[in-house]
Amino acid sequence: FCFYRSMSVQPDSKISNSTFLLTGFPGLEREYPWLSIPFSCIYAMVLSGNCMVLHVIRTEPSLHEPMFYFLAMLALTDLCMGLSTVHTVLGILWGFSQEIGLDACIAQTFFVHGLSCMESGVLLAMAFDRFTAICNPLRYTSILTNTRIINIGVAILGKSFLFITAPIVCLKFFDYCRPHILSHSFCLHQDLLRLARSDIRFNSFYALALVICTLFLDSVLILVSYILILHSVLTIASREERFKSLQTCVSHFCAVLVFYIPIIGLTMVHRFGKHLSPVVHVLMGNIYILFPPLMNPIIYSVKTQQIHTRIQRWFTKQN
After folding, report:
1. Which of 75, 91, 174, 264 qualifies as a cystine partner to 196, CB 3.0-4.6 A?
2. CATH code at 164?
3. What's the pLDDT score for residue 2?
4. Does pTM top 0.85 for this prediction?
């Protein structure tokens, strides 16, 4: 693999031992000025949309409820995800630099994977919130107290970042085959492992176990919560009450799909799409990073009546 990568780069390319080269959109270098326009708009929407959701929740006392506290966690996670990759993605498209130092690459890897685990944990907490609200409404406020919500948030934060520290730190001590060319416009753990000449068995097995214990387990628990919610809703006699109960889950269900579908798609492309154009790999990587932070504010602004009403009222006042 190292020999193949070295033969695919021109001999005059000089990349220092501690510097990696990020991949933009191969074959579309002349289109970067045009590609930078939609990507700049997407990042602007990611940052402004999630900031707007956070602002609405913070300034509206009526939204100081468990459901919206978890939504604020989700918006903050999406905002940080956008901030962690904007400088490399737009830096390539704007023609600044495709190079990134090893320390900066490891730091970006830490935040990208940590924030992905955190988003999965927040979605699981939101599923528990909806399960409690529908299946045990009389004890909803007593179960999800402010103290318990803070503890859940701290647990999600610790689970997301503490568990990935060991394999991320190991990346610092690996030797990497030359040239140091990554497959995406940002750094990923599996991408750095493909360039490593050192023993990567610990990182490989640990990463697999972490994926099973976080993303896979979270998705299974979310599925179980929805099965229990559906079972509880079907016991309601009134069709209107059933519809009203399920309506409160639409936004969260859409957010779950928006998060897990790109992850599955990127995994399938990496596993079975080696014959596909490199542009497809880069595009799927950017969808994995940008699609959830872009869509979540739109979903909750449109589907959640309280958020929609407050945003509409806020823009009316501004006008």
Report:
1. 174
2. 1.20.1070.10
3. 41
4. yes
